[in-house]
Amino acid sequence: MKPRQKRIALIAGGLASLAIAAGLALNALDSNIALYVTPTEVAAGKAPQGKAFRIGGLVKEGTIKRQDMTVSFIITDTAKEIPVAYTGILPDLFRDGKGAVVQGRLGSDGVFAATEVLAKHDENYMPPEAKHAIDQAQKGKP
């Protein structure tokens, strides 16, 4: 093999290795990304099927029901409501009427099976996505 052919083979091998590494990194990122969807979009059928995503809004007053370690509640953007079931320990600040973002998957029965629940941390804060969803839902109301 001539020196020129060796250089070309080395460059081609390096580019192939770089392409494989980039492909693996993008695949890992794609499988860990959770899109944000509003309850109105979920009700309209725009939620990702078979993938994890996030829903944000307000916890509807009087809907928190506890049974052992499973908690069920309704999250709303004031226009549409999505029932949520979560098994685990909730954040201390999780309450009726307060902002929350839940991550998980939508079941075939229409209940959102949450794997993570995030609650607001003080009186003036709401996750930006949840605030935007509630504002958009209120604009759409007559």
TrEMBL record:
Name of this protein: Cytochrome c-type biogenesis protein CcmE
Organism listed in the record: Sulfuritalea hydrogenivorans sk43H
Name of the encoding gene: ccmE
Keyword terms, alphabetized: Cell membrane, Cytochrome c-type biogenesis, Heme, Iron, Membrane, Metal-binding, Signal, Signal-anchor, Transmembrane, Transmembrane helix
GO CC annotation, single: plasma membrane
Coiled-coil residues: none
Topological domains annotated Extracellular: 29-142
Annotated residues for binding of heme: 121, 125
SUPFAM superfamilies: Heme chaperone CcmE
Protein topology in the membrane: Single-pass type II membrane protein
PANTHER family: CYTOCHROME C-TYPE BIOGENESIS PROTEIN CCME HOMOLOG, MITOCHONDRIAL (PTHR34128)
GO biological process, one term: protein-heme linkage
Chief place where the protein resides: membrane
Pfam families to which the protein is assigned, alphabetical: CcmE
Leader sequence residues: 1-21
GO molecular function: heme binding; metal ion binding
Localization (cell): Cell inner membrane; Cell membrane
Function: Heme chaperone required for the biogenesis of c-type cytochromes. Transiently binds heme delivered by CcmC and transfers the heme to apo-cytochromes in a process facilitated by CcmF and CcmH.
